[in-house]
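Sequence design from tokenized structure. All designs in this work follow the same two-part layout: the structure record, then the generated sequence. An example of the structure record is given first.
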């Protein structure tokens, strides 16, 4: 699981859509690291009608990681865990002007391992549930960005939300068109555990056909633990 946390399916560097064809697949991969957890995810979004028009989407996401927390039921004993998640989410894309919204809903499977076993943790063993997710990308002015996402799950009421603002920066320094820089806030919540984050993100940096994003900031959770966090994401349309 440690290997899975650091290594996700890489973005294929050689796959490119033909010049006369609209890409129909977005492949993505990312890492998330903070003091008490290391996670990696990978997947793709398939849009049979292309990404420049409204229509059906299919999102497949695989996420794995290792973590630790302090259990109240075990008299504040440290519990170490590992998890594997798979989500299959049909969805729909809506674009109005410079605003783009994506909505997904579908099943998810989670497997959790805990050492020692924590009987009060609802996320133990194999579990099946449903998940709703939504994403927003809006450019209210030529030089500003508002981006956000929310994910709501039925397993142990596991929810996440993120909101980011950005300002357009000329990419001349990196021989690219432009990218966005700005603040972000993020929140994780499940039965018995919460984490809040505030940080700075870089979005829409491009290296060849690959677009990447990154963030760094400060995180604090309901166990009273705090530390810096780092997040990196890669994406490529095929």
């Amino acid at each position: 699981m440690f290997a899975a946390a650091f290594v996700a399916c890489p973005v294929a560097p050689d796959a490119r859509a033909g010049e006369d064809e609209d890409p129909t697949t977005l492949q993505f991969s990312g890492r998330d690291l903070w003091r008490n957890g290391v996670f990696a995810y990978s997947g793709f979004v398939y849009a049979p009608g292309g990404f420049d028009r409204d229509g059906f989407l299919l999102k497949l996401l695989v996420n794995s990681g290792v973590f630790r927390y302090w259990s109240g039921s075990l008299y504040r004993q440290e519990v170490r865990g590992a998890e594997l998640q798979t989500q299959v989410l049909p969805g729909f894309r809506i674009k109005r002007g410079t605003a783009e919204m994506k909505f997904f809903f579908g099943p998810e499977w989670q497997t959790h391992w805990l050492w020692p076993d924590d009987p009060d943790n609802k996320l133990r063993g194999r579990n099946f549930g449903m998940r709703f997710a939504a994403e927003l990308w809006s450019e209210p002015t030529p030089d500003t960005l508002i981006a956000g996402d929310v994910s709501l799950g039925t397993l142990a009421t596991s929810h996440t939300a993120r909101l980011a603002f950005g300002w357009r920066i000329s990419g001349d320094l990196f021989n690219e068109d432009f990218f966005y820089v700005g603040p972000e806030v993020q929140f994780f919540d499940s039965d018995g555990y919460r984490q809040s984050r505030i940080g700075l993100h870089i979005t829409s940096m491009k290296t060849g056909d690959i677009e990447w994003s990154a963030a760094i900031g400060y995180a604090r959770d309901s166990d009273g633990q705090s530390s810096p966090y780092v997040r990196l994401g890669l994406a490529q349309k095929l």
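Confidence is low (pLDDT under 50) at residues 1-19. We note this feature because it recurs in several other targets discussed in the main text.
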